[in-house]
Design a protein that fits this description.
The structure is a single chain. By secondary structure, the chain is an alpha+beta fold. Among the domains are: about 1-40; about 245-480, no CATH class. It is about 30% helix and about 30% strand. It is built from nine helices and 28 strands. It has helices spanning about 1-55, 75-90, 115-125, 135-145, 160-170, 200-210, 265-275, 290-295, 320-335, and strands at about 65, 70, 95-100, 100-105, 115, 150, 155, 185, 185-190, 195-200, 225, 230-235, 250-255, 280, 285-290, 305-310, 310-315, 340, 370-375, 380-390, 395-400, 405-410, 415-420, 425-430, 435-440, 445-455, 460-470, 475-480. A hairpin with a 2-residue loop joins β1 and β2 (about 70).
């Protein structure tokens, strides 16, 4: 009996094994069939896509629409020519910018307004050419069956627009006026009430132009009227706040001399210092010397004096302004304020070593090279400048509320000193023979650094190191050869 059941069990196992093997064979057949079908489909699709792409080499794929026109089969140049022709057709149409201060009528031609032909041409051509098989196939199928419509893109020259509205901007733009007072003998001796300012809201104006741009290509419209958006500029310090700002004592000062300066340099120093005088820096604000000083050019009143530009000492608008930034830097050091940005001069300048060791200077070049500090005192800081034209001396005084910080500065350490190169003499046919004119001045090169430690309540709150890499500078003389 047991032998019988054993035989049945053995036969069952054989049948089960057979069925499993059968199912496995079928599964393998299905798998390889589907894999082959997929590979065949992929191969056929790839061949088809490559053939299609080859057919439209250097051409835009069918169903790509720009300006609601199907440019399929066209090359990039044809599309660009079309867009440029459209731009030419609106050259005499105008944006009319209106305000209470006047009207500015600006034609499309004046600001190069029109379709962005380069961008739209590139966008149309690269559709379906990303190099991603799935993405390219999807876009080609979509464009062929339903079409792909590119959104119109417009462009214009922002600089030309700014220049054209500048006469109007001069009438619109008004700087806000902070309440100003001079702290002297524990009293405010000078007072000016605050007033709001205003300026053209350039971002909003650009937004209006972009929004109205499609109307320029409407056949029934010759001019587009826009209201110039004006943004109100509130003063940082209003009159009602002027008596509770915490301006009560001297917290730092800086000094420098500028002997042997030419008259135009003296004039520029006095002008630049006056433009920083009376500025209030709010608690937590980062003060930018460049922003406070504003544009430095003949247009804003500066005269020509020697400046460092492109590796040379040349005459330029505002020469001497760095005397002001250097003196201000020294006041910041003395006050123990965090200095966010500072740049040394390219070479050692004699003016800044008349009453100071080397390395304690700061150059600026509006708007790219700046001197910045952060007001971390918790109170307002008042900037006061003083120019002594009799003794050719400049000083900055910073007033606020002392918070117990103390400052310790090391003496500058001078390393890697290198002598100035030999003088260079250059023939100048514009100078009379026998006349020698010096146009650049010798200075020895050196690496200079000093450290500063600021403590408060027994703890170090600032520890910084200021490094100056001064290049050796060559004296240059122009030698007259004119007979």
């Amino acid at each position: 009996m047991k032998s019988y059941f054993a035989k049945l069990k053995f036969k069952f196992k054989l049948k089960l094994k057979y069925h499993r093997q059968h199912i496995l064979r079928i599964s393998r057949v299905i798998f390889w069939f589907l894999t082959g079908a997929f590979l065949a489909l992929f191969f056929i699709t790839s061949i088809g896509l490559l053939t299609y792409k080859d057919l439209y080499t250097n051409k835009i794929y069918p169903g790509i629409y720009v300006d609601n026109v199907n440019f399929g089969g066209e090359n990039e140049q044809n599309l660009k020519d079309y867009l440029l022709k459209k731009n030419l057709s609106i050259a005499n149409k105008s944006f009319v910018l209106k305000s209470d201060y006047g009207i500015a009528t600006i034609s499309a031609k004046q600001i190069d307004f029109g379709y962005d032909s380069n961008l739209l041409t590139t966008q149309a051509y690269v559709l379906g050419r990303s190099g991603n098989f799935i993405s390219d196939l999807s876009i080609i199928l979509q464009s062929y069956t339903n079409g792909v419509y590119l959104s119109s893109s417009y462009t214009y020259n922002q600089n030309k627009l700014t220049a054209l509205i500048n006469p109007l901007a001069k009438r619109i733009n008004i700087d806000p006026v902070n309440a100003v007072f001079t702290f002297e003998n524990n009293r405010v001796t000078t007072f000016k009430p605050s007033s709001s300012g205003q300026t053209i809201d350039v971002d909003e104006l650009n937004n209006q132009i972009s929004t109205k741009a499609p109307l320029m290509f409407s056949e029934n419209i010759q001019n587009i009227n826009l209201t110039i958006p004006i943004k109100i500029l509130e003063p940082k310090i209003t009159t009602e706040k002027v008596n509770n700002l915490g301006i009560k004592e001297l917290i730092g000062e800086g000094h420098s001399l500028f002997y042997h300066s030419i008259q135009s340099r003296i004039y520029n120093i006095n002008l630049a210092a006056s433009r920083l005088n009376g500025i209030l820096v709010a608690p937590g604000d980062t003060f930018s010397f460049d922003q406070a000083l504003g544009d430095v050019s003949a247009f804003t009143g500066y005269q020509q004096a020697y400046v460092i530009q492109n590796g040379k000492t040349v005459l330029g608008d505002g020469g001497g302004v760095c005397q002001v930034s250097t003196t201000f830097f020294r006041a910041l050091l003395n006050a123990g304020l965090p200095i966010v940005e500072r740049h040394a001069h390219a070479y050692r300048v004699g003016y800044y070593e008349e009453d100071s060791p080397p390395g304690i200077d700061a150059t600026i070049f509006v708007p790219s090279v700046d001197l910045k500090f952060k007001n971390d005192t918790g109170h307002y800081i008042l900037i006061q400048s003083a120019v002594d034209l009799d003794n050719l001396a400049l000083a900055f005084y910073l007033y606020g509320t002392k918070d117990g910080r103390s400052v310790s500065m090391s003496q500058p350490v001078i390393t890697n000193q290198t002598p100035a190169p030999p003088p260079l003499y250059q023939d100048n046919p514009n100078l009379p023979k026998g006349v020698i004119q010096q146009t650049d001045f010798a200075a020895a090169g050196a690496n200079v650094y000093f450290t500063r430690t600021v403590t408060k309540n027994g703890k170090i709150i600032i520890s910084d190191k200021f490094v100056s890499d001064y290049q050796p500078w060559q004296a240059i003389y122009q030698v007259g050869t004119k007979e």
